[in-house]
Structures are given as structure tokens and as C-alpha cells.
Amino acid sequence: MPENPLADLNPALMRPEWPAAGALLHVGPYELWPAARRLRLHGKPVPLTPRALDVLVALVRHHPGMMSKNDLLAMVWPGLVVEENNLQVQVSLLRKLLGRNAIATVPGHGYRLALPVGVGEAAAAALPSTAPGALLGRAGDLAELGDVLRHHRLTSLLGAGGVGKSALARHAAAAAGPPVAWADMAECAGSGDVLEAVARGMGVDGGAVDTLARHAGSQPCVLVLDNVDRVARETAALAQELLARLPALRLLVTTQVRLHVPEEQVYRLMPLAIPPAGCALAEALDYGALALLQARAQGHDHRFTLTEATLPDAIALCRELDGLPLALELAAARIPALGVAGLLRRLGDRLPLLAKSTGTGPARQRSLHDTLEWSYDLLAPAAQALWCDTAALPTWFSLEELMARRGGDEAATLDLLGTLVDSALLRFDAGHAPGYTMAPSHRAFALRKRADIAHTSPPTT
Ligand SMILES: Nc1ncnc2c1ncn2[C@@H]1O[C@H](COP(=O)(O)OP(=O)(O)O)[C@@H](O)[C@H]1O
Ligand SMILES: [Mg+2]
């Protein structure tokens, strides 16, 4: 994960060489064209020395993180040994022009840009809609989540592993307006790690809530806490403390496990939309699942294109993979060697097929099996056992059928069903009778787990 994941939205932010034309960034009220080395306020040029512009551009590239003095010196005066006061002079100049608080000092370390950074229209337009950072089929979610974020201080983006929570959060946060800080909690194991990850995300040295509170003050800020799954309880405690101490803070959490605090507003992210069978090609590509499959397959082979002839298999493939973006990406990688029809035929034992051969990316996303294993491990043993049992029920089942099959206490079973629905391992559709179902890939995984458990547990006599 790069220091500033929002920067992926605009390759110009992270690439050492700026694109030659067009890239426009909004830095607070200013407009910055890094390639053209131009800074304007309300259309008028801002007179900056070349070195001060370099410092500003370097801080923008690392926004919202901080840059150490040494890194700044190396970036702005490459290959030269320069006294630190040269840097201070440029920072003072920038503060004089952009405002006293535009650049925050991180004592003993370096500097951090304290103005919001957004991608201007010219730069956004330069990003093709199918580029890896582009968000497909989520226009509705982006707008709705934007509304939720405006009205609530703590939003949990809840959904299955690989459904696109982190991807949507990046775009929603970039569109949110105020400065954004980002903390990836995937590697956290306890409350100490959680605090440290948040401090790092906010560009603060040392993990103490007091320091965070002093640093953020009353500045508006959206803090994204990404991949909270395994530390939901610890994150919930810290989130409550931060919300109480920082009146202008908003939190966006991506997670498979709810925080269960009163401030929490849940946004349930569903898989990408799948075209109905028999849909015409042009119309079908408006559905997110098919658009993603086509875009990623083209990424693996520029010659790939869907035709009316391959469309039915491609739609069936999207349905088999339940519109799950991660599964679609893993499947697309197999298309050059199997074709859509061949892939669909071999999908019966889908789990071995849906794995990356390159071994890149976070371990939990290297295969669909790893993603499901991660989700399964988040469950308490009783929820694991219930989930495995539901996989052996008909495709759609009711609470009554489940109780008839398993027995036990209904209220306790409902609690467990609630957890399984929250983590999207089961789906409940109030408009369908019976109302519970599970995705085909989840069923395959759960049945295998069930068989493993039956195999390893001692026979009852
Ligand atoms: N709407 C989308 N458009 C394009 N790619 C997507 C979309 N949603 C998810 N992806 C891709 O699918 C993969 C899994 O998404 P991610 O956001 O990491 O899932 P989650 O955070 O829910 O586990 C990533 O490679 C991501 O870039
Ligand atoms: Mg994620």
C-alpha cells in the first residue's frame, strides 16, 4: 500500500516524472499544474521560486503523510549536500504565500501539507475509465456513500472480502472534500497496533491519543480506517475516543465485522451488478461485473473483446462468481489461456482456479480461497459451524428449515445468522421466500470445510 493510497487515483501524484500535459491538482484554494510548474490562485499566477515549487510538489505527492527533512532535501536538491536552513527558507516562503498553517511542522521529523489536495478535472479526465485505479459500476454507491458520509461521523463500509470496500473508500474519500488521512489496519493485531497505524496515517509521530488530538485539533478531516476486520473491537474503542475529542473528524471504516457502537452508520456494499441473461452487448457492458471482467481480461490481452457470441458465457461467469470484483479479477487472468467458455466449464472446482500465479498483493487477496479463509477465521466457532451447515441446505432456505435441520435455541441461532449476514457470508432477501442464500463460491468453500470437520472430528457413538 503506498503511503497515500488516494494518490493512485491520479498517477501524477506518485510518479516521479509528471505527465507532460494537463494534470491539474487543487491544493486548498490553489490550482497546481506540476508538469507546467505553475501555481495559480483565482486564475492569477503565484510567484514561487523554483525550489519552493519543488518543496510544494514533493509535499503534495506525499499528502496526507509527512516528509522527513532528509527526504525533502534529497528530492529538492538531488545529489547536493545542502544545509537544512535552505529548506526552512523555502518552507517559510511557502507559508508566507499559502498561509501560516498551510504547512505543518512535525517536530523533530519534517513537514506535512495541511491543505486538502484534490484531482482537478483535467487530471481526472486523463485517467482512462478502465485503468487499474478506476472504479467500475459504482456510480450509485459512490453518490449514496457520499451522502451517508456527509450526514454521519462514523460510517462502516461493510461487505464480503474482495467486494470492493477499499476501492470504493478511496474514491469516496477523494471526493469527500476535506483533507483525508488513511490508515491500513490489515496487519494490526491489537489496540497498540491500531493506535500506531492511525498515528502513522495522520502523519503523527508516536502513538498517543493526546498527540493525535493535538495534531488534528479542530481541522476538518476524513480519516479512513481500512481493512479493520481483525481489530474491529479495538478500532471501535479508539474511534469513539477520537470522535469525542475531535469535533470536526469523520471516520470511514472498511470492514467485514461491525464495530457495534452507537455512532456507527452501516453502509452494506453488495457485489457488482450482473447483466440479465439475454441482454444485448452494449447494454450488458453497463453492468459493473461485466465491465470489470472485460477491462481486466483486456489488461491481460489487448486483443480480448466480448462479442455477442461470447456474451452468454461471460454473463454466466459473472453470475457464477457472484459479481465479486476480486473473483472477477482472478478469473480474468485465466482468460488468455482458457477463453471465457473454457473457464466457465472448468469453474466447477472454482477455488484452485481462482488464484494468482504471480503471488503479488496482500496474502488474503492472492486467491479466492485465501480471501474466504480470512473471512472464515473472523468468525467464532459457533458461527463457523452454522455457516458450514447452511451450505448443505437448499440454495434458498428459511429460518424454520434451518431450525428443523439443526435444532437448538432460535434466538442464539438468529444472533449467529446476523453475524453471517453482516460479513456477507450469507445473504438475506426480505423480498424472497425463503429468504436466506449464499454465493456459489461460498457454498463450495463451506462444503469443503464441513467435509474437513466431519473428517477430523471423532465419530459419535
Ligand atoms: N468497482 C470496482 N472497479 C474496479 N476494480 C474494483 C472495483 N471494486 C473492487 N475492485 C478491485 O477488486 C479487488 C478487490 O477489491 P478491494 O477493494 O480490495 O476489496 P475489499 O476491500 O472489499 O476486500 C481490488 O483489486 C480492487 O481494485
Ligand atoms: Mg479492503
Automatic annotation (TrEMBL):
Keywords: DNA-binding. InterPro entries: ATPase_AAA_core, OmpR/PhoB-type_DNA-bd, P-loop_NTPase, Sig_transdc_resp-reg_C-effctor, WH-like_DNA-bd_sf. One of its GO terms (molecular function) is DNA binding. One of its GO terms (biological process) is phosphorelay signal transduction system. Residues 22-115 bind DNA. Residues 22-115 form the OmpR/PhoB-type domain. This is AAA family ATPase. It comes from Pseudoduganella lutea. The lineage of its organism: Bacteria, Pseudomonadati, Pseudomonadota, Betaproteobacteria, Burkholderiales.
